[in-house]
Amino acid sequence: MNEKSEPLLRAENISISFGGLKALDDVSLEIYPGEILAIIGPNGAGKTTMLNVINGFYKQDEGRIVFEGKTRPKNMKPNHVAAQGIARTFQNLALFTGMSTLANIMVGRTLKMHSNFLSKALYWRFSQKEEIEHRKAVEWIIDFLQIENIRRTPASMLPYGLRKRVELARALAAEPKLLLLDEPMAGMNLEEKEDIARFVLDANEELGYTIALIEHDMGVVMDICDRIVVLDFGKKIGEGTPEEIKANPAVTKAYLGMAE
User: Fold this and answer.
1) What is the pLDDT of residues 51-69, one digit of tens each?
2) pTM (2 d.p.)
3) Domains of the chain (ranges plus CATH)?
4) Which residues contact 247 (CB under 8 A, 6 or more apart)?
5) Signed CA dihedral, 224, 229, 230, 233: sign only
6) 194-225 pLDDT, tens per residue?
7) Distances 221 to 5, 14, 55, 183, 195 between C-alpha atoms, Å
């Protein structure tokens, strides 16, 4: 990460309410190219809401999103946001359970495919060549995440930890400029957490992905993240390196101290 560079994404003064509840209140953050940014806070702090605004699932009431130096239209749909290069995993798994691991990951290549419906239907030469190229990319990701032995297994038959890994694979298949991970290690045992943490680090360090993640395991956050943004009741109460966050009294009181 080079903090002197321009942010890849800026969320400026974001506010959003649901009924009488203000989920985010004038929250700003930056995500820099090549970094891993963690967004942490107690349950209900607004973390997932922020990811939903960033990927276009929610429309903010106030503020703006600037991606690659350009202000994004407020009403941009999630599929158009994805086409810009923002991929997402979800806190609750969103796999196609009747499809194999391979087929689920291939879904992540959809926005990369250019052959039209007729070409696909008749399997003309361009469509055939394109599918072979995308299949190679998916097979590489399968090797990278070490899930070769489940490539043909339906997602419904996979244990929870492997389903989370398949969802990560599908997001990587989109080759995003920004990868958003919503609690990628939730519900996992220690070994599964260590595996996912290693893959997230490798995706960042070896493949160059810029990553923003929500995670409750503070040990993981402090070990793998470059910077941390802390939310509490929809407001930003802290931002900085892991060392700075550890020394922030407001953060310790609101969140980190809860584990004591």
Assistant:
1) 999 999 999 999 999 999 9
2) 0.88
3) 1-82+212-260 (3.40.50.300)
4) none
5) negative
6) 999 999 999 999 999 999 999 988 899 999 99
7) 23, 24, 22, 11, 14
